[in-house]
Amino acid sequence: MLLLTGLDHITDEELRRFKYFAVTEFKIARSTLNTADRTELADQLIQSAGAASAVVKAISIFQKLNYMGIANALEEKKKEAESKYMTNTKKRGTQKVESRSKAEKCSVASATCSDKVFKEPSATGVCPQAKPQKKQMVAEQEAIREDLQRDPLAVMVLKAINPFECETQEGRQEIFHATVATETDFFFVKVLNAQFKDKFIPKRTIKISNYLWHSNFMEVTSFSVVVDAESNHEVRVPDNIIKKAGKTPKINKLRTQPCGTIVNGLFKVQKITEQEDRVLYGIHDGTGTMEVLVLGTQSKPKCEEGDKIRLTFFEVSKNGEKIQLKSGPCSFFKVIKAAKPKTEMKSVE
Q1: Which of 113, 149, 246, 261 is most buried, judging by how many CB atoms fall within 10 Å of its CB?
Q2: 139 belongs to a structural domain
Q3: What are the start-end ranges of the E strands in 91-224?
């Protein structure tokens, strides 16, 4: 919205000049930018640099062009958005810290109180007598400012895909995605260091610390710590959670999810629309149909109607009033070819 605010307030000639600088600033092909309208341009800038970085770079271009009115207005709106985000982050983080601290106290205060250390937005079944220590709260609040969670979290690995290359804020690097679970829930993990792959072995219990917690997924970076859990700290994940984690969400359910929700799943393709830098797939199941937008080089795999596509780390997005799934810089896309029918053997007499 911030990018569109800036782009909507410049003329067509000013937009053409903006695109000239964007080629170098964002490292996007000139042919791709030249044909983009304002909405498509904003989307391309975000795909190239990430939302926050794209706004900063756009402001820099406006300043170079001496469009100071737009640059200053965009800078002010950016600060307002950051302030609002930090306020919400601190509130959300405080809930997580209090819940985690209570859960840790429960294991000491009562043998019957289970260690539910990770439940968003708050842990359930914790002991009411557990109170967080003041010093711990102060230290944790400092970490919350950057969404950094220092305390180790024990999880069982359910699944991990092979590493692949993609563009991140640190440049092009190998990453992979995983699904892990506690005793009460499962969640997705984006691992920005392929060297951790040997730790993410299915059914293994590991402890992760110094990770970033986003609204609906964990991010493990090169600064995170991932170690095997001690034998007496193994996480026992109920079968219903394991089953739920491996299930492809139904399309009618996806339509009700907020934008930004991370989606993994296997979907059947019924329609394909190819463009120069993107492919639009129509997917369907017993509950309805939906579109999947795959941007950039991820549109390379050949796919035909009837094939299935496995989506990893796609996001629920909006195209006008239409809900769709859209690829991001760290999404993974795989085509699974449909089995060809066996040719009937004719008997020869």
Answers
A1: 149
A2: yes
A3: 148-149, 153-160, 164-168, 171-181, 186-191, 205-209, 211-213, 217-220
Q: Tell me if 141 is assigned to some domain.
A: yes
In a domain, 291, yes or no: yes
Q: Which of 212, 246, 280 is the last residue of a domain?
A: 246
What is the reported pLDDT for 115?
41
Domain co-membership, 255 together with 210: no
Is position 223 within any domain? yes
If you average pLDDT over residues 307-330, what whole number do you get?
A: 91
Number of domain units in the chain: 4
Q: Record the pTM.
A: 0.57
Residue 39, both tokens: 């909405």
Per-residue burial over 25-34, b = 16 or more CB atoms within 10 Å of its CB, e = otherwise: bbebeeebbe
What is the per-residue pLDDT across 282-299, written as a single tens digit (0 to 9) for each?
Answer: 999 999 999 999 987 544
Return d(Cα 54, Cα 293) in angstroms, integer.
20
Q: Which domain holds residue 195?
A: 152-246
CB-based contacts of 281: which residues, under 8 Å, 6+ apart? 267, 269, 271, 272, 273, 291, 292, 294, 303, 309
Q: Provide the phi-psi class of 60: left if phi over 0, else alpha when psi is between -120 and 50, else beta.
A: alpha
